[in-house]
């Protein structure tokens, strides 16, 4: 899933793409919506179009890529300039040991496939949470939760490593300890100018910490993104308070 916060008066069109869904409705995302007539043809849309791609990741990285690639190609066909993929778009493992085993560096094979996909489709990609083996992997044996932004040429234009790790106690469930396998990122990433507007990068549990969004907004972000892999309990505990 993906959360957007849009600063007024910024606007863009969005479409939701899921496996099996191929004719999505259009909606205007705006901090201050204004009535306007929308043409059906992408060539006559007055606002940039972005695609929000929802997937259910598995431990099978190649199957996940195939699913994501189909949605990205559909987004390109419909005229989107930017497609957003969720946190853990690359995979969700069965246990922490498998998470570490399946992780890759940014210059690994999987991200290479996504850079080629961005070039092929000619649109920007927000890869909302990549399990990254950083340069300190050999020393730490821990990874980073990395939000990667690719431009339409397939170049990495920004990377943000999640700073607030999700270590929480959930009644009736095992504790969540993201820090057992993941290191916090060292810093924020400056907002990036994209065809849809100036995007501020965050991830999931970061939304609990308003100082991050305030810093991005003060740096000029028009769109704040929170790609997430929340569950049935943690999701409502975050999305509902934020959207109210």
Written account of the structure:
It contains six helices and 13 strands. Helix 1 packs parallel to helix 3. It is α/β, with parallel strands linked by helices and 244 residues long. The strands form three sheets. The chain has a seven-stranded mixed beta sheet with strand order 3-2-4-5-6-7-8. A four-stranded mixed beta sheet has the order 1-13-12-11, with helices on one face. The longest helix is centred in the first third of the chain and has 17 residues, at 61-77. The chain has one domain (50-243): Carbon-nitrogen hydrolase (Nitrilase/N-carbamoyl-D-aminoacid amidohydrolase, 4-Layer Sandwich), CATH 3.60.110.10. 25% of the residues lie in helices and 27% in strands. The radius of gyration is 17 Å and the shape is globular. It has helices spanning 61-77, 96-102, 109-121, 137-140, 210-218, 234-243; strands at 2-6, 11-17, 26-30, 49-53, 82-87, 124-132, 144-150, 156-161, 167-168, 176-177, 192-194, 197-201, 223-227. The two termini are 18 Å apart.
Care to count the β-strands? Answer: 13
- Please name the CATH architecture: 4-Layer Sandwich
Looking at CATH, the homologous superfamily is Carbon-nitrogen hydrolase
Content-based structural category: alpha/beta
Strand order of the largest sheet: 3-2-4-5-6-7-8
Strand composition percent: 25-35%
Task: Please give the share of residues in helix.
Answer: 10-25%
At the first level of CATH, the class is: Alpha Beta
- Tell me the radius of gyration: 17 Å
Number of helices: 6
Order of helices and strands: EEEEHEHHEHEEEEEEHEH
Would you tell me the overall average pLDDT? 85
> Which fold name is given in CATH as the topology?
Nitrilase/N-carbamoyl-D-aminoacid amidohydrolase
Shape: globular
Contiguous runs where pLDDT drops below 50 for at least 5 residues: 23-45
Largest sheet: 7 strands, mixed
